[in-house]
Amino acid sequence: MESTNIIGIYDDPDVVVAAAKKLRENNVRIKNVFTPFPIHELWEVLGLKTRLPVMTFLYGFTGLVVIYAFLYWTSVVNYPLKFGGKPLNTLSFVIIMFVGTIFVAVLFTLITFFVRQKIGPGKEVTMIDPRTTDDKFAIVIEKSPDLTDEDIRKITMILKETGAVEISEKARPDNYIEEEND
Amino acid sequence: MYKAEVRGELIHGNKSYKQITREILTPFEAERPPKWWYVGIFLGVAMLITGLWSMYALVTTGIGIWGLNNNVAWGWDIINFVWWIGIGHAGTAFSIFLLILRQRWRASINRAAEAMTVFAVLCAGLFPMLHMGRVWDAFFILPYPNTRGPIWVNFNSPLFWDVVAISTYLMASGTFWYMGMIPDFASIRERTTSKLKRKIYSILSFGWVGTARGWLRFETAALLLGGLTAPLVVSVHSIVSMDFATSVMPGWHTTIFPPYFVVGAIFSGFGMVLTLMIIVRKVFKYEDFVTQGHLDAIARILTFISLIMGTAYLTELFIAWYGGTEYEMFTFMKNRITGDYTFAFWAMITCNAIIPQLFWFKKIRKNLAIVFIMSIIINIGMWFERYVIVVTSLSKDFLPSTWAAYHPTIYDKAFFIGTLGIFLLGLLFFFRFIPMMAISELKGISKETSIKKDEDHGKH
Fold first, then answer.
1. Which residue on chain B is closest to A99 by alpha carbon?
2. Which residue, A150, B65, B129, B427, has most beta carbons within 10 Å?
3. Ramachandran region, residue A84 (left: φ > 0; alpha: ψ -120 to 50; beta: rest)
4. Using omega within 30 degrees of 0 as the cis cutoff, is the peptide bond preceding B158 cis?
5. Are strands A137-143 and A4-10 parallel, antiparallel or unpaired?
6. For B338-356, how does the pLDDT look when each residue is reduced to its tens digit (9 = 90+)?
7. Dihedrals φ, ψ of A141, to 5°?
8. Contact B206/A124, CB-based, under 8 Å?
9. Gap between the Cα atoms of A61 and B421, Å rounded
10. In chain B, what residues touch A100 (CB-CB under 8 Å)?
11. How much is the pLDDT for B458?
């Protein structure tokens, strides 16, 4: 945990996107960007993707199958009770399957989100800069051992050129969120 | 792309991000709540006690204390249930339809609308639960392996569909609401100077830090949840309407019911949102965030929905005549338009189909006092709609020998007041302990949707 970070603080979303782009063009590995609200362009610049929709589809599909299996088992196999002259395996199952699928998909999508994001009630965090939940945007670059002084100077230059209002170097907090962008 | 020059600003005053955080949190960070807040709490508790008294009497005596009888087996309980569920449609209709349609103006309203949804659905759920009579056996409705056969619940019954739909709806809208609050709780966590508050909001914020990837997942999850819940908005009230439509009662047994109910629900929900937002904006001085434009947009939607409501009423009447069933004809012509329940019927028509048409006039849409009154009238009208549907059909059905009149008792009324109390208390706590608008979302839209007054106007 020796390594420290170079942090560039910005105060405008468009500027921070441009800065991230510039850093990427210069082959600087951006460790993380902290923003007070989602910036879509930033994801493109950093090349971030998520597979959450695929998972949601799988959850929904599994939910649908399981619910139908349950309805079939209860109504046809376990306790076949005829009433109203309707078939045991009826079309009106559609309604419960429809709503139940949504239930399963919503619940598991949320759980996946929390698990993948590694957040949950009671989790203590130390922010690299608390102002990023208010009005500042922070680009964090890890000062890994293989960076020469020359590289670090270059990075600082780029940060300055792209309009960072503050540049600082900070040790990483103990429970700093580990996140890889590549 | 949103063109603020054409469509008007969504946030007035060219606010900086810091200003947005500060202004939204002003009432939240106030040392103590204003006096009226305590008055409201007092009122809410009084109403809640009234309701609890009624519920206690109900549970200890039985549902005979309600005004129900053999023929009118559903009264205020189901009326209020449907009414609350209808109001509960606002949150999802707002935040989710507008999210999917990428309507940016939802940002300053969705949080409050979703809060309303959650409290309204909680109120709604009480009615069918207590109508079961033995509320301690309410879990019988859940399909679990049991020692009674195991006999399962009736999966073909709209009443069971209701249980599934409403619990799903409550879960989905509740979690969606909470998820949206996580980044704002994180803002509070980092802002507050009080140790206790920091502790509490640290737990509530789930350790959110707002990394780029976190936001990507957050937005994707919100969109997915929205996409999944949007069909739920349509299905929940369709299912509620099937409680009625799958029976053979004259006036109920119609195919128009599902869309008619869904539209009605969204109508009353939007009405309630309008009521609430006018109050919130005035009391907490959020005029810059909830602009005339926002309220104007809601009023326009209400005008349109009101036309659909009017059309639905006329269609029902037309089909009653065109269908050639004498019982339908009797219910509509002799028991609604004329007859014992004329007042309720015409109150419904006036409040829902006629009065909202005043929103065609820009002058009226601009006069918030009138808009406020109209938003309340809409919800009264929607209550009467449910009254007309439930009571007229049940009180005079096929056999004149089974006709019966319906009069609610004091217990019915007290129960309803109790749920109003729950709703009021819920909103008051919401005003005090939760940021009333989605701060992060407002920041996300503020740059694009305000008109810059300095020289970089038109640059982006």
1. B165
2. B427
3. left
4. no
5. antiparallel
6. 888 889 999 999 998 899 9
7. -120, 125
8. no
9. 41
10. 164, 168
11. 45
B215 to chain A, closest Cα gap in Å: 5
Prediction pTM value: 0.89
Q: Where does chain A show beta strands of DSSP type E?
A: 4-10, 32-34, 137-143, 166-171
Q: Report pLDDT digits (tens) over B1-24.
A: 566 666 677 777 777 787 888 888
Contacts of A43 in chain B (CB under 8 A): 212, 215-216
Whether chain A has a CB inside 8 Å of the CB on B377: the answer is no
Predicted pLDDT at B9 = 74
Residues paired with A143 in a beta bridge = A4
For residue A132, give the nearest of B150, B210, B213 by CB distance.
B210
Partners of A95 on chain B (C-beta within 8 Å) are 161, 164, 235, 239
Task: Give the N- to C-terminal CA distance of chain A in Å, as an integer.
Answer: 21
Q: Do B228 and A106 touch (CB under 8 A)?
A: yes
A135 to B189: CB separation less than 8 angstroms, yes or no: no
Residue of A42, A102, A118 to mutate, interface with B, max B Cβ within 10 Å: A102
pLDDT in tens, A7-65: 888 888 888 888 888 888 877 788 788 888 888 888 888 888 888 899 999 999 999 99
Please state, in angstroms and rounded to a whole number, the distance separating the CA atoms of residues B10 and A35: 22
